[in-house]
Design a protein that fits this description.
globular; 12 helices; 504 residues; five-stranded parallel sheet; 2 domains; 22% strand; alpha/beta; FAD/NAD(P)-binding domain
Length: 504
C-alpha cells in the first residue's frame, strides 16, 4: 500500500465535495481504535492512516459513561495496552483514570495527530471496480467523503446512542427521576434521596457502593436474579512493593505482572467452567465472609446459573459487600409488578419507595457502529454473516473488526485482531492482492454459534443483531488468548479467505 494522503475534489461526489484518501481508516478512538492505530503505524510504516471519531474525545466507553463509580470490570494490566503498560498499583481503574491513560498513550506514540474528532461515518460502500471503500462522513453540519483500501472498525459492540430498554410495567407513572447509567445526568442530586437500582450486573454493583459513599439516603439494588460477585484486592500508592518488583527492571516486572493477571484470569475461568459446583460454593462462601454477620444469602447471593455462564463481576477491595454495613444499602430479589408514582410495587406484595429509579438494565448490542454498509451498493446483512478469526465478516472485503473477549479483558481480543489484520495487509501487499474477502462453505456454516458465549440478558436480546461464529477452522469464536495470539501471528491467512487482484 502506498504511504501518501491526498485531498482533492472528486467530481463523482457532486458539488465539489472534497475527498480524502488513505490506505487504512480506523473508525473509533476507543481502546480498540487506538490499539489498532499503534499496530498499523508500527507494522505498516509506509501506509497512511487516520482515525475517525464521532465524539469530541477519545476513550469510547470510558469517556461516554459518567455514572457514579464508573470503573473497569477487568484488570488494567491486561485491559491496558501491551505496548504502554499500566504502571499504577491499582488493577481496577476508574473511568477517568482510563481516559487519562489513553490520552497519555496517544501523545506518547504520536497517534493524537491522526485522530479526527466529530467525524461521524454514516455509510460505507465497497466498490469492486475501484477496490476501495468510500465512507460518507458528517462533521459539524458538513459532508465529507473518505476513501480507504482497508477499514478497521473500532466501534465496539453496543449502541452508544440507545441503551437496552427493558420492559418495566408502569414506569411512565413514576413522578420521580428515572435515569439510565449510559446517560447519567451530570447535575443529578441524590444525597439524602431514596434510590432504587434495577439490575444486578457490573454497572449496578458499581453504582451501589459509590452512591452510598456519596451520601444517598438509601439505595436498594432490585434484582430479578443475582450475579456472582468476587472481591479483588487493590494495591494503593504507598503500599509495600513486592521484592520481585523492586529487584527486576521495570519493563520486565510490568511484563511479568501482565502475564500474572492473564494466567490468573484464565485459570479462574477454567476452574469455574470445569468445576462449577465447587466454584459456586467457593464464590458464595467468599461473599458470605465479606457481608455483615447474619446477612441473608438466599436468595440474594445464590445465582441459579453456573459461574461464568454470565460474566463474573468484580469489586475492588470488597466495596460492594462492605457498603451493606452502613445500613443505607439494601438488596431485594423479586420481580416488578408495576411502577407507581412514588416507587415500585413488587410481585411479593412489598413496595419500594423511591425518589430516583436507575435502570441498569444493560446495553443494546450493535456491530459496526450502526453504519449503513453496502457492497457495490447492495446492503450488507450483518446477522447472516460469519466471523473469520473473530476479526472479519463474510462478504465484506478489506474490512476488519476489533472484537474482544467476554471471559477476559476486552482489549486482549482487540489486540489479537489488530495483529492479525496488519499481518493480512502485509500479506496482500507482498502478493499484489487488492482485496481479501472471508468466504465460508455450506458445510462450515452448519450449526452456527453465538460469538459472544454468554447467557446475559443483553446478549440474548441482541442475538438477532450480531453475526455468527462457526465450529471449525477460522470460524471458531475466540476463547483462549494465548491460542488466539498464536493464530494472529502464525495461522494460515488463506484458509477461509478469497483474494483478488484487480487493476484499478
Amino acid at each position: 500500500m502506498t504511504g501518501h494522503v491526498t485531498t482533492d475534489s472528486d467530481p463523482a461526489n457532486g458539488n465539489g465535495v472534497a475527498s480524502h484518501n488513505y490506505d487504512v481508516i480506523i473508525i473509533g478512538a476507543g481502546i480498540s481504535g487506538v490499539n489498532a492505530a499503534y499496530r498499523v503505524q508500527t507494522a505498516l510504516p509506509d501506509s497512511s492512516y487516520t482515525i475517525l471519531e464521532n465524539r469530541d474525545d477519545i476513550g469510547g466507553t470510558w469517556s461516554l459513561f459518567k455514572y457514579p463509580g464508573v470503573r473497569s470490570d477487568s484488570d488494567l494490566h491486561t485491559f491496558g495496552f501491551p505496548f504502554n503498560p499500566w504502571t499504577k498499583p491499582n488493577s481496577i481503574a476508574t473511568g477517568e483514570s482510563i481516559v487519562e491513560y489513553m490520552h497519555d498513550t496517544v501523545t506518547k506514540f504520536d497517534i493524537a495527530k491522526k485522530i479526527q474528532f466529530r467525524h461521524k461515518v454514516v455509510a460505507a460502500n465497497w466498490s469492486s471496480d475501484e477496490q476501495r471503500w468510500r465512507l460518507d462522513v458528517e462533521t459539524e453540519g458538513q459532508r465529507k467523503v473518505y476513501y480507504a483500501k482497508f477499514v478497521i472498525m473500532g466501534t465496539g459492540y453496543y449502541d452508544h446512542t440507545k441503551p437496552l430498554q427493558a420492559v418495566i410495567p408502569g414506569l411512565e407513572n413514576f413522578q420521580g427521576k428515572t435515569v439510565h447509567p449510559q446517560f447519567w445526568p451530570p447535575d443529578l442530586t441524590y444525597k439524602g434521596q431514596k434510590m432504587v437500582i434495577i439490575g444486578s450486573g457490573a454497572t449496578a454493583i458499581t453504582i451501589l457502593p459509590a452512591v452510598v459513599e456519596a451520601g444517598v439516603g438509601s439505595a436498594t439494588m432490585l434484582q430479578r436474579s443475582p450475579s456472582y460477585i468476587m472481591s479483588t484486592p487493590q494495591r494503593k500508592e504507598g503500599d509495600p512493593v513486592p521484592l520481585w518488583e523492586r529487584v527486576l527492571p521495570t519493563w520486565f516486572s510490568l511484563r511479568l505482572k501482565r502475564l500474572q493477571f492473564l494466567l490468573v484470569g484464565m485459570v479462574l475461568f477454567l476452574y469455574c467452567q470445569t468445576f462449577p459446583n465447587h466454584a459456586r460454593k467457593f464464590l458464595t462462601k467468599e461473599a458470605k465472609s465479606l457481608l455483615p454477620a447474619d446477612f441473608p444469602m438466599d436468595p440474594h447471593f445464590k445465582p441459579t446459573y453456573n459461574p461464568w455462564d454470565q460474566r463474573l463481576c468484580f469489586c475492588p477491595d470488597a466495596d460492594f459487600f462492605k457498603c451493606f454495613a452502613t445500613g443505607r444499602a439494601h438488596v431485594v430479589t423479586d420481580t416488578i409488578k408495576r411502577v407507581v408514582s412514588d416507587g415500585i410495587e413488587l410481585t411479593s406484595g412489598e413496595k419500594l419507595d423511591a425518589d430516583i429509579i436507575v435502570t441498569a438494565t444493560g446495553l443494546t448490542l450493535q456491530f459496526c457502529g450502526g453504519i449503513d454498509l453496502t457492497v457495490d451498493k447492495k446492503p450488507v446483512d450483518i446477522p447472516s454473516s460469519y466471523m473469520w478469526h473473530a476479526s472479519m465478516l463474510t462478504g465484506l472485503p478489506n474490512m476488519g473488526l476489533s472484537i474482544g473477549y467476554v471471559n477476559a479483558s476486552w482489549a486482549l481480543g482487540s489486540d489479537n485482531a489488530a495483529r492479525l489484520l496488519t499481518r493480512l495487509i502485509k500479506f496482500m501487499d507482498a502478493n499484489g492482492y487488492t482485496s481479501a474477502t472471508p468466504d465460508i462453505t455450506e458445510e462450515e456454516a452448519r450449526d452456527p454459534k453465538n460469538p459472544l458465549d454468554l447467557k446475559s440478558t443483553y446478549v440474548k436480546e441482541g442475538s438477532g443483531k450480531i453475526p455468527h461464529a462457526g465450529r471449525t477452522g477460522p470460524w471458531k469464536p475466540r476463547s483462549n488468548y494465548l491460542v488466539d495470539k498464536w493464530k494472529a501471528e502464525r495461522s494460515d491467512l488463506t484458509a477461509g479467505m478469497k483474494f483478488a487482484k484487480v487493476s484499478t
